[in-house]
């Protein structure tokens, strides 16, 4: 991926970053890069994620999915980092596969039922993913899915692959039923695991090119260097950090491609869980070009100066002509393609923000394919790790989510937790109709 | 709808609003309510939207769609306010209809092609919506759709309904081909038009109960009063305004129902375009419970104190049991249903934010049905108009989006616009791999 931070310069936008400030920041980037390289070399927790392009073996994954490789649909039962990486890849490349990839990443009962009802279960595979093997939502959904297969007379043990840690209920289950299984790699937090077995099972079943994904990531890894002016990933991480430090803490991620819509969700988790701590962090906002020009652009251009926009663009796409029309006022459309309209709208929107002095950054992908996606996923992860070093936070932990997990378990009778008791003490000020 | 603002009180959260401040603010609410009622009585631009429950005639809409009422699928070609209201309703109620509702609200060529390819066009209806009849994305897509029907040998004039203003290319087209058509109501901006012909054509084709939608909205309208302590909609608008004034300008909308996911997009447009001006306004963030507990919660609970969460919950839903398991660590799940798990997760998440002193507001719907949806749509619109009065902005305009529209047109050769020339002058600072 390439990055253009020109519209984040103080000469264009307010807040903005001066070239002098960027040069000063580059010394911190050099130090952070040293730290990151040490972490990678020592395979420290979290930093190890940046070694995945070398460590992930696509052949192991393809062997594991071989028994289910002919499925018409693959249901991934997982949540958060156990679903978003795979979903980003299979949604981006959905047009290239005959196999449908579905994600059960919520426990809404009607929604779960409607997803299961419309699937031909005898032609559907199950991919259950949880490092601990105890994630409540994932295990509840897995119990429901397994039951649905049994009710339909389909042997779920023939159609299930497990991705989990070395021990725990899912590991036990996979041993007991001799299921194909993969191991969640050590030292890799869920939100950084897209390029491991966690993120690559569904893409493998869909027939996507795992080698190209990893090669694209490896090329991005090769570009990591001690200067933000030479490394797109670090340029992105450092610029967004600098914009936040100057008051623009909201990061609106706006891909100009429907196929990349899920990538904005993946990015939001990566950014929010990694950097959102100690009262610090950027707030990721998910949007979509061109659709959200008719929804969010007014705010981005004329609202509070507390935000910047990250555009993600692709240079190449399959295009489609706009048919000619005899309506004079619309004749200009008939000379163009949908792709040209999309491209013009992107350039116009980017320029409209700059003209209003609103900071924005452009991430450019050559196209939406495995190689470019691998580079994008790796690049954003490296950008996040760099930003975490600059913020001085513990990028690889997410302690604030534990409270609610304990309270949930307590509320459902899964043990005594003081957090569950606090739920009953809610302060109410109800206004009823 | 009912609203609970207890967790936004200063006794719970920081920032938070003291009861004394709320009482002082209530005097401004009373004055704003007077202004709103005057605007409604005089049918002023924008305020007229709050009269829709009385002015919309469901029978006119049902008659117009009668020729296409047996369609298996309805494609709405529209963008922004011309799509999001209808999409909110048909997505929320998708489980109740055999008819598939699809929205072409983007010009991504691969995505448009993939949507059209999988539809049985001879059983598909077209709903094209643009007040001016010149919206570039909508007209480009309509030309593409029309062409696809012609290529498939299907007479599009038998299967198209037009919703537009009194004049313009779409009105001319509808006259020329004698198409069924509806009029976009005067004085109602697109983002406030869900409860008019703009938002109700697709729900009508899907067989949803338009009367119940309007009745629910009318009941919410009846609850408008001069005090935030007596009106859920005003309680929501005033509380969010007060939280923003105290530093929490990010409004994360988190429905705990997959069927309401699109409603968060509709809300984001309503909030962003109406309030995002003059360097003011809240930044809406779209999220989803429980999924985003594993993505955004860390940030919401431990990141900067610049945000609050709006939960949307439903009391009733069709439930599904979680099958029992012999795994001891998971036995507590087998005693519950998916709905109970969802509910426990919501309560735990809400309490976890309060325990960390992070403001949040709860909007309660009885269930997801036409009546409750009508109330929710109307209530959020009234809340938005109230907030606009408190901010002192022009709620019903969106001037900042014009620049990019002109630049787009200029870039495509649709006329000479200085905005298009500015695009070429972009400041670049490229970092390439």
Explain what you see:
The structure is a homodimer of 433-residue chains. Chain A has 433 residues and is of the alpha/beta class. Chain A has three domains: 2-37 and 214-391, Glucose-6-phosphate isomerase like protein, domain 1 (Rossmann fold, 3-Layer(aba) Sandwich), CATH 3.40.50.10490; 50-208, Rossmann fold (3-Layer(aba) Sandwich); 401-433, no CATH class. The first copy, chain A, has helices spanning 19-41, 52-55, 58-65, 84-92, 109-117, 136-151, 169-176, 197-205, 210-222, 232-245, 261-275, 297-302, 331-334, 338-355, 370-391, 402-411, 418-423; strands at residues 2-4, 73-77, 100-104, 124-130, 160-164, 181-183, 250-255, 283-286, 307-314, 360-365, 430-431. In chain A, the strands form two sheets. Chain A has a five-stranded mixed sheet, sandwiched between helices. A five-stranded parallel sheet of chain A has the order 3-2-4-5-6, with helices on both faces. In chain A, helix 4 packs parallel to helix 8 (197-205). The longest helix of chain A is centred in the N-terminal third of the chain and has 23 residues, at 19-41. The mean pLDDT of chain A is 97. At the A-B interface, strand 1, helix 5, helix 6, helix 7 and helix 11 of A face strand 1, helix 5, helix 6, helix 7 and helix 11 of B. Strand 1 (2-4) of chain A pairs antiparallel with strand 11 (430-431) of chain B. Chains A, B: Its EC number is 5.3.1.9.
């Amino acid at each position: 991926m390439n990055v253009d931070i020109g519209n984040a310069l103080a000469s264009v936008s307010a807040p903005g970053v001066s070239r002098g400030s960027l040069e000063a920041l580059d010394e911190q980037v050099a130090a952070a890069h040293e730290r990151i390289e040490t972490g990678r070399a020592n395979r420290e927790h979290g930093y190890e994620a940046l070694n995945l392009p070398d460590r992930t073996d696509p052949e192991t994954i393809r062997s594991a999915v071989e028994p289910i490789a002919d499925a018409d649909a693959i249901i991934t039962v997982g949540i958060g980092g156990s679903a978003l990486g795979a979903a980003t890849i299979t949604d981006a490349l959905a047009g290239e596969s005959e196999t449908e990839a579905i994600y059960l990443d919520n426990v809404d009962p009607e929604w779960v039922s409607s997803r299961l009802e419309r699937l031909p279960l005898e032609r559907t595979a199950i991919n259950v993913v949880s490092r601990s093997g105890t994630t409540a939502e994932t295990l509840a959904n897995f119990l429901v899915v397994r039951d649905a297969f049994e009710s339909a007379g389909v042997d779920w043990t023939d159609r299930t692959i497990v991705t989990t840690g070395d021990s725990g209920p899912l590991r036990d289950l996979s041993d007991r039923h001799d299921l194909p299984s993969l191991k969640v790699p050590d030292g890799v937090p869920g939100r950084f695991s897209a390029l491991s077995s966690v993120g690559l099972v569904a893409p493998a079943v869909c027939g996507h090119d795992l080698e190209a994904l990893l090669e694209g990531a490896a090329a991005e890894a090769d570009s990591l260097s001690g200067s933000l002016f030479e490394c797109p990933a670090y340029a992105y991480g450092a610029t967004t950090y600098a914009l936040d430090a100057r008051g623009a803490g909201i990061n609106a991620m706006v891909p100009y491609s429907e196929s990349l819509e899920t990538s904005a969700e993946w990015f939001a988790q990566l950014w929010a869980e990694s950097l959102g701590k100690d009262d610090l962090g950027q707030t990721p906002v998910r949007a979509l070009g061109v659709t959200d020009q008719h929804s969010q652009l007014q705010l981005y251009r004329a609202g509070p100066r507390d935000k910047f926009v990250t555009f993600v663009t692709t240079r190449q796409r399959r295009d489609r002509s706009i048919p000619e029309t005899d309506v004079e006022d619309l004749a200009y459309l008939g000379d163009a393609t949908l792709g040209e309209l999309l491209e013009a709208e992107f350039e116009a929107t980017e320029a409209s923000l700059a003209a209003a002095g609103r900071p924005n950054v452009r991430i450019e992908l050559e196209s939406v394919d495995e190689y470019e996606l691998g580079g994008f996923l790796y690049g954003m992860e490296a950008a996040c790790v760099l930003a975490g070093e600059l913020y001085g936070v513990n990028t690889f932990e997410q302690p604030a989510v534990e409270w609610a997990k304990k309270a949930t378990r307590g509320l459902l009778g899964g043990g005594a937790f003081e957090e569950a008791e606090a739920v009953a003490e809610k302060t109410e000020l109800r206004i009823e109709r």
